Amino acid sequence: MTKPPLTIHLAAPRGFCAGVDRAIKIVEMALQKWGAPVYVRHEIVHNKFVVDGLRAKGAVFVEELDDCPDDRPVIFSAHGVAKTVPAEAARREMIYVDATCPLVSKVHIEAERHSENGLQIVMIGHAGHPETIGTMGQLPEGEVLLVETEEDVNRITVRDPDKLAFVTQTTLSVDDTIGIVAALQARFPNIVGPHKEDICYATTNRQEAVKAIAPGVDAILVVGAPNSSNSRRLVEVGAKNGCAYSQLVQRAAEIDWRALDGVRSVGITAGASAPEVLVNEVIDAFRDRFDVTVEQVETAVERVNFKVPRVLRDIEMEA
Ligand code: 0CN
Ligand code: SF4
Asked: Which residue of 171, 206, 223 sits with most ligand 1 atoms within 8 Å of its CB, as the best mutation to test the pocket?
């Protein structure tokens, strides 16, 4: 039986960003330096395949520091932690390594600096997401007001409308955030903030690539996890930019082939925490059913690279 033709428009950039790459390396190096078990507070990045792989090498994933023994090293995930977390680890005299992405740490510092200058902080982010919890947790409880939508902007009660600053989560929708920032500036004309927002380069570039692909394909598949904010935003960007079918899949096994019946072109991308092997797995699944031509759509070239913390640099040289 001849297979029907299909063109895959493969987004570039896609997949691992510099912060994810660094965070995973930190866990691997810590295992090399201290041996197993090494504890990791929260999924190091939001991807089950990555987490399972590290678990097989001796990493133990827990949600809270309370679940770690005093005498084993602990690593904090790429998403960042509230100030109380390293403080508690230090009090317990634990060895800890902070794998918070430097671009998240930058937002933490911004929030602190504004607060030192007497400004109250408004954070644009998703309630309950670890990055939002971590960034809000840089300041005492109640100091940071969370807004998730434009409507939320009208609901907040501020101390002084002239003494406000905003920060954002790094993995938001660029387009939705423009609207929320505009709503904040309309209600609080003196609010200060970053030039645009704090969305990172990786989030921005992956959304741009999907925007370039979405109008011309029958379907978009985003390789990524349901708890991955940046991956879920890519699905939304696909849907909002003219693609009738935009879906998140963790692995090839999750592809809904019935929904893809009759498609002739598919866009494929991957969230910042999704490894390339899973992208290849998805492409191979298409090759089993279609006569596939892959066309890469490159909208940016990334050269960002972050160093691992000093305590692990001797390991890096051996590796
Ligand atoms: O999927 P991630 O682990 O995290 P979110 O997109 O949910 O924030 O990707 C790494 C991003 C960071 C920090
Ligand atoms: Fe850092 Fe952005 Fe990657 Fe998050 S998505 S780890 S902020 S580079």
From this structure: 171
Kindly give the distance from the C-alpha atom of residue 292 to the centroid of ligand 1, in angstroms, as a whole number: 30
The pTM is what? 0.98
Q: Give the model confidence (pLDDT) of 182-229 as tens digits.
A: 999 999 999 999 999 999 999 999 999 999 999 999 999 999 999 999
Angle between helix axes 18-34 and 102-116 (nearest 10 degrees) is 100
Q: Which domains are delineated in the chain? A: 5-16+201-298 (3.40.1010.20), 18-101 (3.40.50.11270), 103-187 (3.40.1010.20)
How far is it, in rounded angstroms, from Cα 107 to Cα 197? 10
What torsion do the CA atoms of 281, 282, 288, 290 make, to the nearest 10 degrees?
Answer: -150
What amino acid positions are annotated as catalytic residues?
A: 131
Give 232-235's long-range contacts (Cβ < 8 A, gap of 24+): 232/271, 233/171, 233/172, 233/173, 233/203, 233/207, 234/206, 234/207, 234/210, 234/269, 234/271
- 165 CA to middle of ligand 1, Å? 24
